[in-house]
Structure formats: structure tokens, C-alpha cells
């Protein structure tokens, strides 16, 4: 682990990570490969199960017919980790394990045959919290079902699983239920540069990172490698934090999500001051309540990719009710974003651009620190402007996006490289235009 951070006891939060040195905004604090990981079922056909590259044509494992790879090299490198899993997958066919079952099995295989060079971890799986004592019964039941599925999945490959777990694994890892609970509480979602969620992984040392609703660090992935970067200047001894959840929501909702999912009450500065709640809920309440209530139906249309109906509903709401509410209102912002998404999918570029432009002041307001979501939104707007021939505007948006993404993703990230190329394209197109 890089020498910029160290483990410490964070007052009121238990274990945490703190800065050992002064860390400037944008600095790569550490990068690490997962102890265990897998592509999520949703993306199993489109993403290489070894390197997480998205690819149109992937080679399929001839045995389990589940794992897919870019090429023979990826398949070969994946084989030592996939070999046992492959037989489990075959045994379960035609059923498929859930993502957390598949990841838990991978973790158990790793724990039973630990790699030699893992002494640098700051935090062991044994120390990971399962939070079983804090969970409501219903959630525990759900996890028990997953644990039963895990046992069934591994049964043929390791018939004496319980025995081996008891004799070879640390005390807190001997039950499949506690493994499942540890995995669900501590796994990270692995996303691509554009924040599309592709899979799940365990990065034990970074599980020490505590949450803050205005964090000083951000995680970005390159393939399966997790990169942690500072988004604020950090002093020695200061705690390093990330956000476990989408920060674009009001205090009450953030706290509820953190309690349900992570079993703690957030006491960060943003929660104590309820900073931004007022502006997120600005405008006439009876109007924004209508927008808020429409959200779940609209999200349904979005997940069904019903773009035509989604765009129609969003446009109706924004014209009839949205006028009563400022653009910064959280629910109006969410609906404007969905309208943007729908119009992009329908190829209605001008509409898309007008929705995109409307969201930018709110993004600027709600993401005071560099944040990938803000950078990506600017990039999206820039691409629309470019496509519609507004080259100068596009270059302006790309430049703003670059200011953010070079800090959150780093200048050598493929996404940032892609952005730099777009800026170059704009510059050369402007040189070609006759001056007026
Ligand atoms: Zn690959
Ligand atoms: Zn296979
Ligand atoms: Zn908070």
C-alpha cells in the first residue's frame, strides 16, 4: 500500500484511513487490484470477465458457457481464478448464481488458497464487519437464502465445504452466512470511466474508508484496478473519506439509505448542517411534490428503455408543473436528466442539448468539489454541442469537463484521453472555419 495513507481509529466510527502526508487535490493516493471480483450478471455477455473491457464479440468459456473474454490471453490469465468457479457454474446450470453468491464463492476459493503476496493489506477479511447483529430479521432471511444458494453452488466442487471452512478459515469466516454478509456490506461496485456499473469486487484495505456526504476522496476504476484520488487538499492526520451513496439527495433520504444499507447514522458536517436541503427543495411545494411523486413511474419507464413515453411524460411535467419550480430543485433536476437521457436515445439532439444545458448550473452548485458525475455531464453536453456544429460551445464544455476529470480520473485515464482528443478535434475544426 502506498505510503500516503495509514490505518487509524476514527473517533466514533471505528477503523478508518488517514493521510500520512499532505495530499493535494487530484493526487492519486493509492491504486489496488481486488482480492476477488466478478462481472455482474447484467453485463455477463458484454464485458470481459478478466479485464472488464466492453467488447462486441467475446470468446465464451466452452465449459460453463458463462464466462466471456476479449481474447485467448485474457482467458488464459483468468483460468487459475476461474477453474474452480467454472465447475460450480456448470453444476448449477441452467440456474445462475447471483452476483454476491458468485463473488462470495470466489472469496472462499481465495481464502482457502491464499496468494503469497497479500501481507500488505491493512485490513483482513476476518476483521470485516458482517453487521448481522444490526440487521432486521427480513434482511437476515434474505442473506440466509443466499447462503443456502452459495452452499448449493459450491457443493460438488468442495463437498466438505463446512469442514474446510471451520478448519482453515479465521473464526469470523467459518459460516457461509457471515461470508455472504461480509461480502454484501463490504463489496465495491466496479464501474467503467463513465460510471456504468459493471461488476463487484473486494478491496479489503479500502473497506476501511469511512463515508462522508461531502467526501475528500473519490474512487475511479481502470478495468478492475481501483484508483483513489483526493478531490480536496488533505492535511496529514486528516481522515480520508468517500461517499457510499449518490450524494445528490436531501439529508433525510441520504441518512435513511445509509442506515438501511450500511447500518450507521451519518453525522458528517453536511448532515448536521442540513446544508443544501433548502435549495434542493426550493420552489412551490405542491408543485415539486408532484414531480417527486412522478419519479418512480418515470424510473420504471427508464429501466424498460421506454424512451418515447419517458420523454413525453417528462416534457409534460416540466412544462405544466416544472415552471413553478427553479432549475435547482432536486426533483426537477432529476426529471430534466431523464428527459436528456430519453432524447439522446431517441436521437433528438436539439432537445437533448437544451435539457443538458439546463442541468449544468445545478450540477455546478451541488458538486462544489470535482466529481466524476459533473465532469461526465459536461462531456455529454459538449458532445451534443459538437454534434450540432456549435464547435466553440463544445470546446468550452470540454475544457470545463477536463478541469474536473483530470482531477477525478487523472490525465492518463482512457476517458480523459478521449476527452483530450475531442478538444483537439474542436480546435482543428475551428482553424478550418472561415473567419467572419
Ligand atoms: Zn479482457
Ligand atoms: Zn468456465
Ligand atoms: Zn452525512
UniProtKB/TrEMBL annotation:
Keywords: Metal-binding, Methyltransferase, S-adenosyl-L-methionine, Transferase, Zinc, Zinc-finger. One of its GO terms (molecular function) is histone H3K4 trimethyltransferase activity. It catalyses: L-lysyl(4)-[histone H3] + 3 S-adenosyl-L-methionine = N(6),N(6),N(6)-trimethyl-L-lysyl(4)-[histone H3] + 3 S-adenosyl-L-homocysteine + 3 H(+). It comes from the Eukaryota. One of its GO terms (biological process) is methylation. InterPro entries: H3K4_H4K5_MeTrfase, SET_dom, SET_dom_sf, TPR-like_helical_dom_sf, Znf_MYND. This is [histone H3]-lysine(4) N-trimethyltransferase. Residues 48-86 form the MYND-type domain. Residues 3-245 form the SET domain. GO terms for cellular component: nucleus. Its EC number is 2.1.1.354. It is an enzyme of class 2 (transferase).
